[in-house]
Specification:
Shape: globular
Largest sheet: 2 strands, antiparallel
Number of domains: 2
Order of helices and strands: HHHEEHHHHH
Radius of gyration: 18 Å
Helix content: 40-55%
Number of strands: 2
Oligomer: single chain
Strand content: 5-15%
Length: 210
């Protein structure tokens, strides 16, 4: 279960004594904190269950979600330097937005912080879904089943390039051990080419957003 970094599920700000050595200036920290605060929607949370969506509340103002979308884009542009604060806010349960991926889902501020971070670490934007399901990634280990704070504490000095290499090598190993690996050669080849691109260019993969 993900470790929460605030005293209550509805808290507005995380505690500040966090185990991070951030390279941010005071001004950069305030700006990223401001952007994360903008992720909190001023709308009420829609009623969404796993397989049904009863619609947005009558007073739901989609125009108010523009600030949320803008904040998401700006946090994505901030890149690796925003990671410490994204991790710090990953336990924020305030409603942020509603998205559709096979089914409707409400995302909290913490969900969005996590997705902005791991969308850059596990960057597979051109993966053809028709090839099959991607093997389990680090997000399953460190977010669903583990402790995101512990994950970051061990990697807080790593470059984005190094984080991406670790993530993609984890998936490559998963493919090599897959029960149907002969039928999934294209996935393995795709992952290996992505890794080669990082190593060859000495740069992290370009990020296309969540």
């Amino acid at each position: 279960m993900l470790l929460l970094i605030c005293s209550g599920l509805g808290c507005r700000h995380p505690q500040r004594s966090l185990p991070f050595n951030s390279e941010l200036t005071t001004g950069q920290t305030k700006h990223i904190e401001y952007l994360i605060e903008q992720l909190a929607s001023r709308n009420s949370r829609p009623d969404v269950s796993e397989w049904s969506f009863s619609g947005y509340p009558a007073d739901y103002d989609h125009a108010k979600q523009v600030r949320v979308d803008d904040a998401i884009r700006d946090l994505q542009k901030a890149g690796r330097k925003a990671f410490p604060l994204l991790v710090a806010h990953s336990g924020d349960k305030r409603y942020s937005c509603t998205r559709v991926y096979a089914a409707y889902r409400n995302w909290s501020v913490g969900d969005v912080c996590f997705l902005v971070l791991f969308g850059q670490v596990e960057n597979y934007d051109h993966f053809p879904k028709s090839w099959g399901k991607m093997p389990g990634g680090l997000w399953q280990i460190h977010y669903e089943d583990g402790d995101l704070m512990a994950w970051w504490r061990e990697r807080k000095t790593w470059s984005l390039q190094k984080l991406q290499i670790e993530a993609i090598e984890h998936r490559i190993e998963g493919e090599r051990q897959h029960e149907y690996r002969e039928k999934r050669k294209r996935i393995l080849e795709y992952l290996e080419k992505r890794r080669e691109s990082i190593l060859r260019n000495a740069l992290p993969l370009e990020y296309y957003g969540i």
